[in-house]
Design a protein that fits this description.
352 residues, alpha+beta, Phosphorylase Kinase, domain 1, Transferase(Phosphotransferase), domain 1, 2 domains, two-stranded antiparallel ribbon, 9 helices, 15% strand, globular, kinase, Ser/Thr_kinase_AS, Serine/threonine-protein kinase HT1, Ser_Thr_protein_kinase
Length: 352
Amino acid sequence: MGSGNGVYSVGEFSLDAKWLIDPKHLFVGPRIGEGAHAKVYEGKYKNQNVAVKIVHKGETPEEIARREARFAREVAMLSKVQHKNLVKFIGACKEPVMVIVTELLLGGTLRKYLLNMRPRCLDTRVAVGFALDIARAMECLHSHGIIHRDLKPENLILTADHKTVKLVDFGLAREESLTEMMTAETGTYRWMAPELYSTVTLRHGEKKHYNHKVDAYSFAIVLWELIHNKLPFEGMSNLQAAYAAAFKNVRPSAENLPEDLALIVTSCWKEDPNDRPNFSQIIQMLLHYLSTISPPEPVIPQRIFKSENAVLPPESPGTSSLMAVRDDAGDTPKINMEEKPKGFFFCFNQCY
């Protein structure tokens, strides 16, 4: 429902009118991603190419309430901060379903990018450049009192030219003043700071306290992965990695890292959160390290567009396929372009 000040509220969901998406102008195309709580599609909104995140409603009343609260939190965070290394928020709506619309990034996830490179590693300057993108995004969030809590390669998306990394998925982000007891579904253990999940005995009703330094720990694991292009804690399950990190203070090996990089990584994943640097300090350390590396010799880029109409890889379908009739994928709405488009509701019924 609307209010006189241009803010729309539905339950816990409050949104300034300028961010409210009109479903009639939203069209959904091929699916490009899927998580535990949502599916992401390529789409169009008022002739703009976008990513459309459709959040699953849930089954039980408790689950529905939890998903709605998470949706409201993510929308609030996205509308609150803007930065070149954070995915650009375009708008959201709660009816007929919970939808978040952001800019469309066609470079794929950092996870897929690294997997496609294996066993090769990124050039060190490229790896550190990506790390700077991530650190600057985190510095922006922390300056607004926001903890991401789920920093990992799956939540980092590359631009189409593979030159810039942007942070996405604010579903687990929290304002620092609202930190609370973690649950097993929060984040991914392999990248999570031990203080988020360690089973230290708490008195009944006591909250588990932590601060923004949990993101510094996750950043260290991601930076290690950027440099080595290996899965951290390789050979361990997520739970085994969590147990080793929390109770044995085990970390991936930093022995083969250059001294300055090793210092950054090991300081960020220190056991005591108070000993970890903040992201302003991390950025300065990364910039200093970059200044010590001689510029690489020019090389022909591995990824060259042969024409303006080059075909993008399957995980990042091009917008040319957005409104086309496709019979090979049940998740892609079938739209006859000779008919008058029926809008989001028509697409939604076929793709959700």
